[in-house]
Amino acid sequence: MPAVLAEKMKDAIVAIIRGKGEIVNAVTETVSDTLTTALKGTGSIGNALTGAVADVASGVIEGTSQVGGDLGEAARGAVVGVLRGTKQVGAEAFDTIGSTVQNLVKATVEVGGDVGSAARQALEGAIEGAHSIGLKGVDAVAAAAAGAIQGLGDVGKTATTTTAGVARELVQGAFNAGGDLGSAAKGAMLGILRGTTELTGQAADTIGATAGSLVKATADVGGDVGRIAKVAVEGAIQGAKEIGVDAAQAASAAAGGALRAAGDVSTTAVEQVERAATGVISGVKVVVATPFRG
Length: 294
Hints:
With 294 residues, this protein is mainly alpha-helical. It has a domain of 151 residues. It has 13 helices and two strands; from the N terminus they run αααααααααααααββ. A two-stranded antiparallel ribbon has the order 1-2. Helix 10 packs parallel to helix 12. The longest helix is centred in the N-terminal third of the chain and has 22 residues. The radius of gyration is 19 Å and the shape is elongated. The N and C termini lie far apart (58 Å).
């Protein structure tokens, strides 16, 4: 089914964009209908869904890219469509959100598209889709953010600036759609740790740069930078524990990055972040190893 489904989706998307021009709603309807049909009567929904979602995401992005459509809009429609389609067959929604966004971002990377835009609009789609089927928005945001970061690939192979840039777009997406900024921040940090197997120096740098990007993006939209810094540290700790690496080191990297970014915002921001993101958090003593004032 996978290869056939991907090709079917790509052809459908090409026809839609060429025929109508409008992308979001058309992609939503096509994805929903295709998944519902593909999964009905399947004996193992979990296994079938994993492959189907990956294929649908690939087909949507490849088809949109082929005709020069907006990949971000396509990603948004795809997430909403997946949620609506899988809801009808009782799929596990939040796992589906993460997997869908991960595969959309991965496919966007493969076609050389704007991954920041795709991640932002996919997250907006997750919020919209979750709301339409009665799911908790905060959980949808966290799942989408984690999936987006994981979609970039292994942290050790992905440019730190790319990861931090996508994290910034995730905060903007949550803000645009009325979602929880803290969930976006926590999900982004979880995604980094889930996308690696060891806490190398480069991974720690990526954690710090991402935390800093989250703080700056939050300041830009008038959000609570202290809260965002704290939940970013919490996400780093949770992610580190999940993969069995040093949680204190991950937390320190996140807190240090948040504090350095706060220094570029204002003295008040530094005070807020320092107060919120250091000390004992989630049972871990968080100490910033490098200077952040200057």
